[in-house]
Amino acid sequence: MSSRWCTPRGPPSPKSLLFTLVTILSVFFIHQTEGYTTLSDKSITHLVSSSSYSSSSEDTKTSNHDPDFDPHTGALLSPILIPRVPGTPGSEKVQRHFIDFFSSELPNWTLEWQNSTSKTPATGDTDVTFSNLIFRRDPPWLSRGTSTTNQKYDADGEEDKEGKKFVKRLTLAAHYDSLYRPEGFIGAIDSAAPCAILMAVARNVDRALSQRWEGIMKKREEDVDGLEDDADGDDEEEEGGVQIMFLDGEEAWVSWTDMDSLYGSRALVAEWEGRKFTGDAVGKRSAGPKTELDAISLFVLLDLLGAPDPKINSFFKNTHWAYQHLAAAEAKLRKLDLLESTPQQPFLPEGKKAPQRFTGGYVLDDHVPFLQRGVPVLHVIPLPFPDVWHTMDDDGDHLDVPTVGDWAKIVSLFVAEWMDVEGFVPGKEEGAKNGGWREKEEL
Question: Which residue among 232, 238, 387, 412 has the highest number of C-beta atoms inside a 10 angstrom radius?
Fold first, then answer.
């Protein structure tokens, strides 16, 4: 584990102090302007009870646990529990699993591919392909030529059309690749289960987002005749989106170094850092994002989840408020008896962490390239690492299924409250509304 821990050394440089100040101020601004509305008990119950069991086998419905997370038959999890080394057929199968899920169950989400190649210490002169999949749900009034998903760029990375509006997005991420060695390594906590959790989160919040945004659009249509000079409306001006990243190439091929790790996230950040936009930003109180990275309101990274009794630390002082919201989500769900696990302590026990206890240390993971560019980060990873980490025991049979299901509920509630969907969470009897699902590129 020592190779994955970063501790600041020596006095901070003026540049690092400036970076810290800018980051803290930017996150303070985000905290003050993002809509974060707590859900009622009724809405919470509907939200975490909305998982569709229809795609799972009848035999699993007798279980006390969410059948989608059954390691052998679960519709979300079991297809990911195979070796997923970048550039291999196993990796491609899991990519297709993500695509099939969103296209069939969540057709309003768009997909962007971000591909790169790199040599590795294990493959010599052979280039390995790394593929990141980014699924987005933006407000529908941005769906036709105004969301960054559909933007075009010139040779220098400049966006080639004027007048676009951009949307801030809550960003959830997990890596889907598995270790190159030992051969046959599965990586259930690392990170098949986090990927399945994010799929469940997307499904749990999707209908509420649809109903919220349909309400905003309906209000706009009703008001447009009398308010032609402000047709967009304040609600639209401040509305954000959500995106889910499945990142490739997190694992080292030989041993963890700056260059033998984080292949996918490093390539993604390098590309997005060069995407410079020229249009106005959504949000009257902001100068607006200048790059794709600036559009990330918060980067939430899930890793090593699925073992019992996890302890998640709050690593970053400037996003401790977000950690507190996540901890509050867990507490509310436990109070309502909606979680199945029985841990010795809360998953997120540091809600009251004192400011002086933040030392600046953190675990090296896919958030690092984003963190280095000033993106606010919430890292959801247990310390100490689970005992099965990087062993052949990290497989489906060693997962704690109640814990996996509980993480899906906790993160779903966090996202739903961030996206301000109180009053729009449908009951299970209400069917989802389908729309057009678009894939930016073909496999």
Answer: 412
Structure tokens at 248: 């490739």
DSSP per-residue letters across 307-360: SSS--B----GGGHHHHHHHHHHHHHHHHTT------SS-SS--TT--GGG--S
Residues forming a β-bridge with 170? 242, 298
CA gap 365, 381 in Å, rounded: 10
DSSP label at residue 280: P
Give the whole-angstrom CA distance, residue 367 versus residue 55: 32
34 among known catalytic residues: no
At residue 429 the predicted structure's pLDDT band, cuts being 50, 70 and 90, is low
Greater confidence (54 vs 111) lies with 111
221 carries an active-site annotation = no
- pLDDT, one tens digit per residue, over 208-259 is 999 999 999 888 887 765 454 444 455 455 678 999 999 999 999 999 999 9
Q: Which fold has domain 2-225+233-429?
A: Aminopeptidase (3.40.630)
Q: Spell 45-81 as b/e; 16+ CB within 10 A means b.
A: bbbbebbeeeebeeebeeeebbbbbbbeebbbbbbbb
Q: What is the mean pLDDT of the chain?
A: 83
Q: How far apart are CA 122 and CA 251, in angstroms?
A: 12
* Tokens describing residue 267: 């390539």
**Pairing mode of beta strands 110-118, 438-439:** parallel
**Quick one: pLDDT at residue 284?**
43
**Dist CA 254 CA 260 (whole Å):** 7
pLDDT in tens, 46-96: 999 865 443 344 444 434 678 999 999 999 999 999 999 999 999 999 999
- Residues 250, 292, 330, 395: which is the catalytic one? 250
When pLDDT is averaged across residues 105-133 and rounded to a whole number, the result is 97
Helix, strand, or coil (residue 114): strand
Segment 307-319, tens digit of pLDDT: 999 999 999 999 9
| C-alpha–C-alpha distance, residues 209 and 396, integer Å | 32
Cis link prior to 191 (omega < 30° from 0)?
Answer: yes
Q: What six digits make up the tokens of 424?
A: 């729009």
DSSP assignment of 193-244, as one string? HHHHHHHHHHHHHHHHHHHHHHHHHHHHHHHTTT-GGGTTHHHHHH--EEEE
The H-assigned helical ranges of 354-400 are 368-372
The whole-angstrom separation of Cα 84 and Cα 147 is: 31
Percent of the chain with pLDDT over 90: 66
